[in-house]
Amino acid sequence: MNSGKVAIIGGGLSGLYTAYRLSRRNIDYMVIEARDRLGGRIFSTPGPGPRHDLGPAWMWPDFQPRIAALVEELELTTFDQYNDGAMLIERSLQEPAKRVRGFVSGNTSVRIDGGVEQLIEALAQRLPPERIVLDSRISTVQSTASGIALQTFGPHQALNEQRFSQVISAIPLRLLAQDIVFEPVVDAQTRQGWMKTPTWMAPHAKYVALYDQAFWRDEGLSGMAQSHVGPLVEIHDASHAQVNAALFGFVGIPAAARKQLDEASLLEACRQQMVRLFGAKAGAPVAHYLKDWAADGLTATDADMLNPPEHGRPHHPHPLQGHWSERLIISGTEAALEHQGYMEGALEAADWAMRYVL
Prior knowledge:
By secondary structure, this protein is an alpha/beta fold. The protein folds into two domains: 1-42 and 117-198 and 311-358, FAD/NAD(P)-binding domain (3-Layer(bba) Sandwich), CATH 3.50.50.60; 43-115 and 203-298, Polyamine Oxidase, Chain A, domain 2 (Alpha-Beta Complex). The chain is 23% helix and 25% strand. It is built from nine helices and 18 strands. The protein has helices at 13-24, 65-73, 117-125, 173-179, 188-196, 215-218, 255-258, 263-278, 343-354, and strands spanning 6-9, 29-32, 78-80, 86-90, 98-100, 110-112, 132-133, 137-144, 147-154, 157-164, 166-169, 181-183, 205-211, 221-227, 232-237, 245-251, 287-292, 328-330. A hairpin with a 2-residue loop joins strand 8 (137-144) and strand 9. Helix 1 packs parallel to helix 9 and helix 4 packs across helix 5 (188-196). It is elongated, with a radius of gyration of 21 Å. This is FAD-dependent oxidoreductase.
């Protein structure tokens, strides 16, 4: 079965943007996504209406031109991150959090109205649904005389084989090295480079609490807090522009230690911390959610538990050399040379990959 000219592994931002670019050039493609949804690490709280981001939330138009241009092209609206008011510093349980003057960085943090999933949905709406396959994991990528054969499987499908002329990988490099068999094998140096490239978000967990009102604003607080106690080490206002009050925080407990905690206990510890910082009203959220990316097997590997990620440069050659040159194109935010780990990096890597599509 020939399902298109170019196979795109991964239906996150980089993969969907690549499909969007290919579609505009009238190049056949197929997006193959292992999850039962699109977006990858772009993921939000459930429910109708505006959603709150459990993955990336911010963009910085001052120095991220690609994401700013795409948001405008897709006719999405944005708003500045709320930073008005004082911030809180929690140093120990023996003393109350200290209220200090808030600060704003030189570059304005911007959020997408309705949540970053609006970006994924807008891209998906511009792609033919028959060009997207969900719940389909790739086991083997085999180079043959007649093209590249991809063997896929899923919860509702037996092993299936599809053929393409080129493959663009838009998944984290460590997953590419760990989960997919290449025939012929990728050279050891390249594979080691993939394994050395940390997956952004992989060791992290994020907590979001939804409220009827942004009561902290009425008390002159920005919603920003830093804690040396935890479990949340950094907290921000996650409310949307007009409605849907919320706070979110990054969990500071290391990924390996979180494995010893059940989700209910960690949710309760986060809720109690919100009460310590913001008062009794913070103890009664309409709903609260936790996303532990380290427990997501389609994001994190064991290697991601060992070292904290940092924005940097990928540890692999651009482009690939040897047999897989021009057959396998590496994309995804981890492959970006300048904005690795950011949404801007996902688009940067996709732009780079497009130069090698035959």
